[in-house]
Design a protein that fits this description.
heterodimer, A: 116 residues, mainly beta, 4-stranded antiparallel sheet, B: 115 residues
């Protein structure tokens, strides 16, 4: 069965600090896909990244970086030099290749507060 | 803009009534997804369309829920005999090529309140 755990329910950091959001997943499939989404206070979901299970290379996009570790089944997300606009709920998600319906399973989300 | 649009943005209905939610994907996108987000259940995947077909509808919460997509474009999600537990924000997303690793672009959602 597939499962996504975001153990951090809520995090508060002061602006300009770095912050890492944890994501641990469970799957029996060897081919799967991992995602991160951002949901700012406006409510509209924003897609951030997708990663397939064969690509363990870490990804960096501006102040955002993602660390994919198959050995620990983790796909953590780091924001460096955080800004107030980064305040949002962040969701990690997983999709298994064997799912016929392309089902995507979401974690419960981590609410991130960036304090000025 | 040319983003995903959903209508209505807000819907308040009485228990037992039927409601229809509409999603207009980005033009040319073949993949379309429905999700819902509620306080109790978090984010849930409901159904995925590739073109007009949905490979598997088992993600829909009950047989009161149905979804269709015609012409490979607009999709409607219908909830019959609404219940209070159906209250949620219903989100639609579209993607250019389909498949699990495809980027998804989300609409603003429809907030459904069942009284």
């Amino acid at each position: 069965a597939q499962k996504v755990t975001q153990a951090q329910t809520e995090i508060s950091v002061v602006e300009k600090e770095d912050v890492t959001l944890d994501c641990v997943y469970e799957t029996r499939d060897t081919t799967y896909y991992l995602f991160w989404y951002k949901q700012p206070p406006s409510g509209e979901l924003v897609f951030l990244i997708r990663r397939n299970s064969f690509d363990e290379q870490n990804e960096i996009s501006g102040r955002y970086s993602w660390n994919f570790q198959k050995s620990t089944s983790s796909f953590n997300f780091t924001i460096t030099a955080s800004q107030v606009v980064d305040s949002a709920v962040y969701f990690c998600a997983l999709s298994e290749a064997m799912n016929r319906d392309d089902k995507i399973i979401f974690g419960k989300g981590t609410r991130l507060h960036i304090l000025p | 803009g040319a983003g995903v649009s959903q209508s209505p943005s807000n819907k308040v209905t009485e228990k037992g009534k039927d409601v229809e939610l509409r999603c207009d994907p980005i033009s040319g996108h073949t993949a379309l997804y429905w999700y819902r987000q509620s306080l109790g259940q978090g984010l849930e995947f409901l159904i995925y369309f590739q073109g007009n077909s949905a490979p598997d509808k088992s993600g829909l919460p009950s047989d009161r829920f149905s979804a269709e997509r015609t012409g490979g474009s607009v999709s409607t999600l219908t909830i019959q005999r609404t219940q209070q537990e159906d209250s949620a924000v219903y989100l639609c997303a579209s993607g250019p090529a389909g498949g699990r690793d495809d980027t998804q672009y989300f609409g603003p959602g429809t907030r459904l309140t069942v009284l």
